[in-house]
Amino acid sequence: MEPRPLLEPELIDKAKLGDKSAFKQLYQLHHQRVYALCLRITGQVSLAEEATQDCFVRLWQKLPLFRGESQFTTWLHSLSVNQALSCLKKHRSFWSRFVSSDTDLQSVSDEYEDLDKILLKLPERARIVFVLHALEGYKHEEVAQLMGIAPGTSKAQYHRAQKLLEALIEQGQVDIGGRNE
Fold first, then answer.
1. Which of 127, 125, 131 is nearest to 168 (CA)?
2. Where does the pLDDT of residue 177 fall: very low under 50, low under 70, confident under 90, or very high at 90 and above?
3. Which of 13, 40, 157, 160 would staple 129 via disulfide (CB 3.0–4.6 Å)?
4. CA 87 to CA 103: how far, in whole Å?
5. Distance (Å, rounded) from C-alpha 125 to C-alpha 181?
């Protein structure tokens, strides 16, 4: 005799206790609705996927806080909205650091969802400094030490990368003439 499928409240209780199988079932029950909501908020497949993933990571972390005072779906909906907005804000904030204020960030996001393709167009040293400083959060002194260059050189290469990225994005040009260092 097959065991009866667990009801949502039972899945929630088990997942709260760390049962990954129960959490997987909750994910399977709700991921399409969460993704659809995230897609409507972000307007982009890649951001919706990111927000959906972040939402379920947060759900795993916050599930023990769910007390059942509201419907689980209402609570998950609120969590999903917050994650989608956070993802969108993070994405726009990221691009706004590198693009002048008069550039339409939405068109930048739409046109260049894959940052890696743009970064490959940068000269090697500028790209490495940019990735380490802007994306990985290293300080210029740390980048300089890792690369065996002066901190001032790191700052100069970072500035160069910013200007080249801005030019590539604003001009819609992806080939910067094969410049290399």
1. 127
2. very low
3. 157
4. 20
5. 7
Measured at the alpha carbon of residue 84, what is the angle toward residues 35 and 106, in degrees to the nearest 5?
A: 105
For the chain, the distance separating the N- and C-terminal CA atoms, rounded to the nearest angstrom, is: 69
Q: Which of 114, 116, 115, 119 is nearest to 129 (CA)?
A: 119
Q: Of residues 47 and 124, which shows the higher confidence score?
A: 47
21-63 pLDDT, tens digit each: 999 999 999 999 999 888 887 778 888 899 999 999 999 999 9
User: Strands, E, within the chain: which ranges?
Assistant: none
Q: What is the DSSP letter of 2?
A: P
**Region 129-153 average pLDDT:** 85
